[in-house]
Amino acid sequence: MANQVKRPKVLAIASGGGHWVQLLRLRPAFEGCDVTYATVRDGYRADVGKANFRLIRDGNRWNKIAVLRSAAGILWLVLTLRPDVVISTGAAPGFFGVRFGKWMGAKVIWVDSVANAEELSMSGQKAGAFVDLWLTQWPHLANDNGPKCFGSVL
Amino acid sequence: MIFVTVGTDLPFDRLVRVVDSWAAETGRDDVFAQIGEGGWEPSHIRFTNFLQPPEFIERFNSASIIISHAGMGTILSALHHGKPILVMPKRASLREHRNEHQLATARHMKEMASVNVAFDETELRQQLDQIHTLLPSRQIGTHACNSLIRGLKQFIGGVAAKL
Q1: What is the pTM of this model?
Q2: Domain range holding A36?
């Protein structure tokens, strides 16, 4: 059909715990997309049913070697998947996902965790410099030069 | 059953100690706690250091009350399942977390979703002593609010249109 839109390839990436729970709550936004979910624990695989699932390593800024290994794996994931869109709810692995995705030409989205109710996360502040859609979940943290707010995962 | 969880990263001894002594003094024998690695070990409640996601879900589902750190994963699950939850924020200044955001999370979740919050050990003990009065917080659906989903869909749709 003439007006048929190609299915975008979406990489939805987050670390564990609250970041992952929040990413899952965004699932209806990915209808009509080929989604790959990437997170840090194999036990989360069941959460996405038949959708593509990729395991990545966790890493935070307190452990340099773990961060490098995590980043390398995520770079490989982005290079091989070639997503059209990368979306993350945090934290460090999600930051690498949007950073590398942007370098590879994807449109990238940062949804700062609802846990950050009084200031953006450190990853969220850094991501703001280059992401295509920069979101906070708290209206009082949104402003013209900063992130927008469309609402929250609640 | 009461399910206690402190998150996967760092232990939360302040919370576990209060729950343990409360259980000992009141004879409460149906408490199960996930306490993290390398912290203080309770002697009056059953515990484990870490739970794989499926075990976590099982413990969570069979509990009637959740007591936890102010982590959004646990809070969102409790709100979704309509379970009463009592949280105490972890403090980075006490090396319980890597940054100080849980105080803000707890304050805002209390205001926005009526999550029960104890800001310190004294308040935690007070709330435990009245645990039968603990109410479930605001119940939420399976997904994020419509405006957030709509905004994201619109953005992704815009990308798709240009492929």
Answers
A1: 0.95
A2: 9-141
